[in-house]
């Protein structure tokens, strides 16, 4: 097992990884920017190294500085968390070339899954159902028109390099195709330096359902059931549930087995998530994330499996500590992403937290790195914590959510807590009856 792990991240996920390491007797090294000197991930780690100025490109994305930090401190592995360098195949290769273990999949799998066109081809071959779409990239308006005509409108133009909902444009009819194509290409070029795009059938009211998997290097693959992440704003997840209120045991078992077999075939190592859209009883693959996800705790709560611990174990060459038969689902879990934002306009609200008290008690977990007196810097993601509730039933979860949101006390900045308080009173939410556009429609209607 590793003796020392460098955590190449910040915020709540750096703490989450630190906690897993400590429980395994592993020392931790934090890296941080000059804006994060007083951050909790730095305060808790056994050692810390400043890797650069506030801008992510100069610090949390600064590969030479991070590798140097690992070498100077003698870390034998690097955990990238999510975001930042977690899906950078080149980084994984560089880490490995320095005889340091990258806690994640093989670089080749990160690379293939990071290109959505290549990913669709790879998982399609392994038996995973796909969204009907163009056969690879479209290179001209003519090609796009032909593909769209075969698929049927509306269609979605998507960037091969896409992420975070960028480089994605809907064309309702052929008249909109030219503009959708050029906007998606321009957006993708600006954000990812690559303008390859492809076309997919636009599903009108699907749910977003994703399956968590984890695999070791001894050929064992387990699927840990699904998360329903349909409540989104601007393609960003806002609230997630495990398991999905929309699946029955049979559908769950079927898709889980398809995914498990596909991952076995691909020969993947570590934790990953296969994301699907789900409409009229059918699953359509959209992408694979080759890393730990923000919403992993709800899977941990319903399976009693510590995903970060397992990730570290399999990266060190050990076997998964459970088999597929051991995976049993208990009750329900919900996560709310609490952002430092105005709950109505969603404008970021960085600044000093003057007073803070986290909710707690039975069935409540608050994963966060903030504290009273902490100043949220303006340079990074606005998520400041994840309120995770769990219980035997979905009803109990919602009751716990309601009382823990009321307990949440944080002053000095705005948070999205009031949004969740309103959301959990909505009959559609209470009935579990929503799709990927529901939240935006509700926000538009309730303003
Ligand atoms: P990103 O990598 O940018 O997050 P994804 O492919 O994961 O892109 O898609 C993000 C979200 O965009 C999905 O959760 C869904 O809301 C929407 N989306 C993606 N593909 C489609 C599609 N074919 N039809 C309808 N909505 C889609």
Tell me, what's the shape? globular
Q: Ligands in the structure?
A: adenosine-5'-diphosphate
Strand order of the largest sheet: 13-12-9-10-11-14-19-17
Mean pLDDT: 97
Computed Rg? 21 Å
Number of helices: 15
By helix and strand content, what is the structural category?
alpha+beta
Q: Major sheet: size, sense and barrel closure? A: 8 strands, antiparallel
Q: Beta-strand level of the residues, as a percent range? A: 25-35%
Note poorly predicted spans: none
Helix percent reads: 25-40%
Topology, number of strands: 20
Termini Cα gap: 53 Å
Characteristics:
447 residues; alpha+beta; eight-stranded antiparallel beta sheet; five-stranded parallel beta sheet; 15 helices; 26% strand; globular; binds adenosine-5'-diphosphate
Task: Describe the protein.
Helix 4 (89-97) packs antiparallel against helix 5. The mean pLDDT is 97. The protein has helices spanning 11-23, 40-44, 63-73, 89-97, 107-114, 116-125, 141-151, 177-192, 249-266, 296-303, 307-315, 394-407, 417-423, 427-430, 438-445, and strands at 4-7, 27-33, 47-52, 77-79, 101-102, 155-159, 168-171, 197-201, 207-215, 221-233, 236-242, 270-279, 282-289, 332-339, 351-352, 355-357, 364-368, 375-376, 383-391, 409-411. It has an eight-stranded antiparallel sheet with strand order 13-12-9-10-11-14-19-17, sandwiched between helices. A five-stranded parallel sheet has the order 3-2-1-4-5. A three-stranded antiparallel sheet has the order 7-6-8, with helices on one face. It is built from 15 helices and 20 strands. With 447 residues, the chain is an alpha+beta fold. The N and C termini lie far apart (53 Å). The chain is globular. 34% of the residues lie in helices and 26% in strands. Adenosine-5'-diphosphate (ADP) binds next to strand 8, strand 12 and strand 13.
